[in-house]
Design brief:
The complex is a heterodimer of chains A (about 260) and B (about 400).
Chain A lengths: L2 E13 L2 E14 L3 E5 L6 H9 L4 E10 L2 E2 L5 H7 L1 E4 L6 E5 H13 L5 H14 L10 E2 L5 H15 L3 E5 L7 H17 L3 E6 L12 E6 L2 E6 L1 H10 L14
Parallel strand pairs in A: 3-10, 3-11, 6-9, 9-10
Antiparallel strand pairs in A: 1-2, 1-4, 4-5, 7-8, 11-12
Helix pairs in contact in A: 5-6
Chain B lengths: L1 E5 L46 H4 L12 E6 L5 E6 L14 H9 L2 E7 L9 E7 L5 E9 L4 E10 L2 E10 L4 E8 L6 E10 L4 E8 L4 E10 L5 E10 L4 E10 L5 E10 L5 E10 L7 E10 L5 E10 L6 E10 L2 H8 L5 H20 L2 H24 L4
Parallel strand pairs in B: 4-6, 5-7, 6-8, 7-9, 8-10, 9-11, 10-12, 11-13, 12-14, 13-15, 14-16, 15-17, 16-18, 17-19
Antiparallel strand pairs in B: 1-19, 2-5, 3-4
Helix pairs in contact in B: 3-4, 4-5
Classes of the chains: A alpha/beta (about 260), B alpha/beta (about 400).
Protein name (chain A): Fe-S cluster assembly ATPase SufC
InterPro entries (chain A): AAA+_ATPase, ABC_transporter-like_ATP-bd, FeS-cluster_ATPase_SufC, P-loop_NTPase
Keywords (chain A): ATP-binding, Nucleotide-binding
């Protein structure tokens, strides 16, 4: 069993006006096999947490620690974090023109595992995973994310989660912009990964909708850069009914 | 910075240009076989304003008497190769010189290599024209590639070694012929090369014109393509990779003088290192009679390191509203850090991620070349170029 531990994490983002603090002391412990939902209004810092954990250069950790089984994650480069078993399903996956999905998947898998997957076995695994996610086989020859619809990009992210088998997966608003069918397909992919591996999941979302398909063990409410309230799945149900209004200063209103 | 324009619905309004407005229409640019008509440039002229004129100076002399290149032709069995005197009547038919370098080359040259694909012949292999630099005496050379009616052939011109070369490449694509001409500038450091490519495309003829520039100190290639009858098609593809202190300039001119012709221009370049400089200028002129013209040109540049500079100027002049399509796009971007982050977040080390992105940038273009030996060599050259920038990255302190 592995543990991802976040302690008193403070993170600033680079802006034209200088560094702007976003996270103000986040504490969170995730064990293998657990699913944690992080919910919160827009601008509360949920996605910043995701990007900072993955090591995006725009975000600067000003204090606090992140460890994976005791190893200092913050000292690792972006690619080292991925090879250590962290996976970030991005909110806005990036287009990489001229690099085919097939080539990209094989290159990443080889980097993560340390050696190339056996050709026949890998081809079969990719094909099966694509079928499960209803991704047409022609996507293998298309450039990564180029010309993909929003839903196709998200399915491609979850395809990677299934194939790379990370120890911990951070899903950054994977549900946003998906219609009900696509949401179900994507959720099934996450649940398959949970069943077949012992992945710990950090599910970042604005809406409770995805939690009908992916059952969280813990729910954390993010407000103003830190966790304002924690609980079990029942907290999500309460948020569904009440929204985020009670977490916001009087007079302010959270967007739906 | 991106500029994209679709002119397919443009109305005729006389001259129409984008980018920096050139000095008058391309149609009014002086062309001549006479040295006296085109003086040595100062560098302020429109066609020289991006060029290192001082470094090109040796090629502007009235008489280039050097014998600094060796030409070796390895022809397909169907193809005829000759060396002829400068007064051979087949020379000088693909258009007049359009700048000082071109007119100097025309006047200085004493003999020419003529590669002829006979009428209706289909060449069974590529014809290779090797031009090896042997000394630094300023030299003029002339090559004519002539595809007679309904012939088909591929000709690869390969420049290596060190030279000061002022060159003319004439390309005649006669009615119904399909010709591919590839010019590879893989010079050693220090080479200075000016090359005027002048192509004339006949009825229902098709030219694929490929320019690949990697080596040399200064390389300036100016391909002109003129349609002489309806139904012609030209595809111009270019790929360049400039390192520190290299100047690579590609100035194209497609002259749609007659109706119902099609042109496609796609040039892509990568730059790395201090004072690496690339210039791409794409002039397209759609003359008043050229109804049904279909043209599109694109230039993209990928700036890999600080200190490099890419100039990109598409110019489209439309003198008739009755066209099928006309557009251009130009984009110069830095290496995309978001792409790098995405790939690295999947465990791919920075060096491999950069390699993937640069290969990806060129991939589509390399597929378009359609000459396997050239494609393979290109991939190898790109790898070699990348090795240079990788050594800079690996030597740099970690982030």
């Amino acid at each position: 069993m592995s543990t991802l531990e976040i302690r008193d994490l403070h993170v600033s983002v680079d802006t034209k006006e200088g560094a702007k603090p976003i996270l103000r002391g986040v504490d969170l412990t995730i064990n293998s096999g657990e699913t944690h939902a992080i919910m919160g209004p827009n601008g509360s810092g949920k996605s910043t947490l995701a990007s900072a954990l993955a090591g995006h250069p725009k975000y600067e950790v000003t204090s606090g620690t992140v460890t994976l089984d005791g190893e200092d994650v913050l000292a690792m480069s972006v690619d080292e974090r991925a090879r250590a078993g962290l996976f970030l399903a991005m909110q806005y996956p990036v287009e990489v023109p001229g690099v085919s999905v097939a080539n990209f998947l094989r290159t990443a898998k080889t980097a993560i595992d340390g050696d190339a997957p056996s050709l026949r076995h890998w081809a079969k695994e990719v094909r099966g995973a694509m079928e499960n996610l209803r991704i047409d086989s022609s996507f293998a020859e298309r450039s990564v994310n180029e010309g993909f619809s929003g839903g196709e990009k998200k399915r491609h992210e979850i395809l990677q989660m299934e194939l790379f088998k990370p120890g911990f997966a951070i899903l950054d608003e994977t549900d946003s912009g998906l219609d009900v069918d696509a949401l179900r397909v994507v959720s099934e992919g996450v649940n398959r990964a949970k069943e077949s591996t012992d992945v710990g999941v950090l599910l970042i979302t604005h809406y409770t909708r995805i939690l009908r398909y992916i059952k969280p063990d813990y729910v954390h409410v993010f407000v103003d850069g830190k966790i304002a309230e924690e609980g079990g799945p029942e907290l999500a149900e309460r948020l569904e009914e009440e929204g985020y209004d009670r977490f916001l200063p009087a007079g302010a209103s959270a967007s739906a | 910075m991106t500029l994209t324009t679709d002119h397919s619905r443009a109305t005729a309004d006389g001259a129409h240009t984008h980018g920096t407005v050139p000095a008058g229409s391309r149609a009014e640019r002086k062309t001549s076989f006479d040295l006296a008509d085109i003086p040595v440039p100062s560098g302020r002229e429109e066609e020289w304003r991006f060029s290192p004129v001082a470094r090109l100076q040796p090629l502007f002399a009235d008489d280039l008497t050097g014998d600094g290149v060796a030409v070796t032709v390895d022809a397909a069995p169907e193809v005829v190769v000759e060396t002829v005197g400068r007064d051979d009547e087949r020379l000088g038919r693909a258009g007049k010189p359009g700048d000082r370098a071109a007119v100097t080359a025309w006047n200085a040259v004493r003999e020419a290599t003529v590669v002829t694909v006979p009428a209706e012949a289909v060449a069974t292999g590529a014809t290779s024209v090797r031009i090896d630099g042997t000394s630094k005496d300023a030299t003029a050379s002339h090559l004519l590639v002539r595809a007679e009616r309904h012939s088909e052939a591929v000709v690869v011109i390969d420049h290596r070694g060190d030279a000061l070369l002022n060159q003319t490449v004439e390309i005649l694509v006669e009615d119904g012929a399909h010709l591919t001409v590839v010019s590879v500038q893989d010079w050693a450091d220090g080479a200075v090369h000016a090359s005027s490519h002048r192509a004339s495309i006949g009825r229902d003829a098709k030219l694929k014109h490929v320019v690949v520039t990697f080596g040399g100190d200064v390389v300036r290639v100016t391909p002109d393509a003129t349609f002489t009858a309806e139904g012609g098609e030209v595809e111009m593809v270019g790929l360049y990779f400039a390192d520190a202190d290299q100047h690579q300039e590609h100035r194209l001119f497609v002259d749609h003088a007659v109706p119902q012709c099609k042109s496609r221009v796609t040039y892509k370049g990568a730059l790395q290192g201090a004072s690496a400089h690339t210039v791409w200028v794409g002039d397209v002129l759609i003359q008043a009679d050229a109804e049904g013209t279909d043209t599109y040109e694109l230039n993209r540049n990928l700036v890999l390191t600080d200190g490099a500079r890419a100039d990109s100027v598409p110019n489209l002049e439309i003198e008739t509203g009755e066209i099928a399509g006309a557009g251009h796009a130009s984009a110069t971007g830095r290496f995309d850090d978001e792409q790098l982050f995405y790939l690295m977040a999947r465990g791919i080390p920075e060096i491999d991620a950069r390699r993937l992105v640069v290969r990806g940038f060129f991939a589509e273009l390399i597929d378009e070349i359609g000459v396997e030996s050239v494609e393979e060599r290109l991939l190898a050259s790109i790898e070699a170029e990348l090795e240079k920038s990788m050594s800079v990255i690996t030597g740099a302190p970690a982030q």
